Amino acid sequence: MRRLRPFAALGRVPLYCLASAAVGALAVTGLSAAASVRSDQPASPVPVTTSSAAQPVLPSWAIGPFNRYSDPRSVPYQGNPLITPHGDGWEAAAIYNPGVVYSDGTYKMLYRGQETDGGASQIGYATSADGVHFTEYSGNPVINNSVPHGSSGVEDPRLYQLNGTYYTFFTGYSGGQIDIDEAYSTDMVHWTQVGPVEQNDKDASVITNPQGVPVKMNGQYVMYYGQSGNGTYIAYSTDMVHWTAGTPVNLDLPSGYQPYEMCVAVTDYPTVAGAPLNRDIDMFFAGTLMANGRWYYAISELEFSRSNLTTELDQLTVPVMQPETSYELLGQTERTVFMNDIIFVDGQWRMYYGAGDTDVALATAPLRTAASGHPYTDFTGTSFEDGQRQPDWADEVDSGPGGDRKSTRPNSSHITISY
Questions:
Q1: Closest CA to 86 of 44, 162, 140
Q2: What is the distance between the alpha carbons of residues 390 and 394, in angstroms, rounded to a whole number?
Q3: How far apart, in whole angstroms, are the C-alpha atoms of residue 373 and residue 200?
Q4: CA 360 to CA 357: how far, in whole Å?
Q5: Residue 248 backbone class (left: φ over 0; alpha: ψ -120 to 50; beta: rest)
């Protein structure tokens, strides 16, 4: 996502960082170290670390908590980030914000690369047998910025699989204009460009099952899309190629969450071992999320109704992933995590995400135990006004008309939004 440029470029260092979460935050912590793009070392049998903080409170519909991939016992060290910038070509400065599906025993990834900080983005392809060690396609990039409406960059690919065909939706950026562009392929290498399917917005989030396969709702595929400032919408398709104009949808987020973007939508999904699947829609989104100076972009979740897709049922008031490690705190965009995918493989959720708008990293979430469901029963009850969710860390004066407190993004004098 093209969001901002940092006011100062900080050096990237291979340090270990274990950060403490603020009171009330959903903290996940992990060890960080520099990682190569490819490694011959086998995947660790214990590929994730657990948080040292208390387990966060989550309602039954929410996925998580998440743990960053890391195995400090491995020699050489195995852990995040999975893929880092390298060489002097199209991905020399940044590799981030991937879309991933799992098909025929292989993890297949499209990712965004940049030759220079702030330069035009292009899209590459990589595969992995274990979901950790990825091999890049030798003919990358597979989607470059010569496609129509992409002269200034093609960004943030979302990736889906359906009946032997792969579909990607990405941001086409050209001379200040943004659109949601679509392409499809049967081999992940040769892509047929559909062109813009929604204009003047970005962040396509097609409703899928846990394997990244789009599902029909009342006979149609459904795409949530959008961001603060440009609007948030729902579009429909019967063939995954031709989409209706967007119908506005209200995310009902407090003003302090801006800016924010839609990321991923999943239905018929598990969160608790042995429990029935959740039939409504879990929408992941990213934004400042009442950061109050603690991060720039973090990730959280909200719930939409399956029976009425424009109706929001609930939302978390804290992030499930926030910048804490060196590879998230530093980079092209400091203090930023962003996601384009969530897939369920071998009994756990896998989120491949962009760290600092520079690296690709992995976080996982096993299913929770049945006993964990009891404390979550009353999570949704609040006495706040409509549209104002419970603060996530500190009391604040509700000074706006009708209690709608307007707040500004932290450190706004240091960064510039660039859509």
A1: 140
A2: 10
A3: 41
A4: 9
A5: beta
Query: In this structure, what token pair is assigned to residue 383?
Result: 């006495």
Q: For 218, how many CA atoms within 13 A lie in the half-sphere containing its CB?
A: 6
**Residue percentage of the chain with pLDDT more than 70:** 75
CB atoms closer than 10 angstroms to residue 347: 9
In degrees, to the nearest 5, what angle opens at C-alpha 225 toward C-alphas 220 and 226? 160
Residue by residue, DSSP assigns 277-317 as: PEEEEEEEEEE-SS-TTS-SBEEEEEEE-SSSTT-EEEE-S
Torsional class of 156: left (φ above 0), alpha (ψ -120 to 50), beta (otherwise): left
Label residue 185 exposed, middle or buried (CB < 10 Å: 0-12, 13-18, 19+).
middle
Closest to 169 (Cα-Cα) out of 259, 262, 305: 262
Q: What is the pLDDT of residue 318?
A: 87
Question: Tell me, what amino acid is at 91?
Answer: E
Query: Is residue 177 within 8 Å of 166, Cβ to Cβ?
Result: no
pTM: predicted TM-score of the whole model, two decimal places: 0.81
Task: Report the C-alpha gap between 399 and 122 in whole angstroms.
Answer: 44
Helix, coil or strand: residue 5: strand
Residue 129 C-alpha from the chain's centroid: 22
Q: Are strands 153-162 and 165-174 parallel, antiparallel or unpaired?
A: antiparallel
Output b/e per residue, 402-418; b: 16+ Cβ within 10 A. eeebebebbeeeebeee
| pLDDT per position as a tens digit, 347-389 | 999 999 999 999 999 999 999 988 776 555 444 444 344 445 5
Neighbours of 378 (CB within 10 A): 8
- Residues 100 and 160: beta-carbon distance below 8 Å: no
Which amino acid is located at 414 in the chain? H
| Interatomic CA distance for residues 132 and 58, integer angstroms | 27
What is the full DSSP assignment across 157-222? Answer: EEEEEETTEEEEEEEEEETTEEEEEEEEESSSSS-EEEEEEEES---EEEEE-TTS-B-EETTEEE
Tell whether omega for the bond before 6 is within 30 degrees of 0, i.e. cis. Answer: no
CA distances from 351 to 43, 78, 284 (A): 17, 17, 11
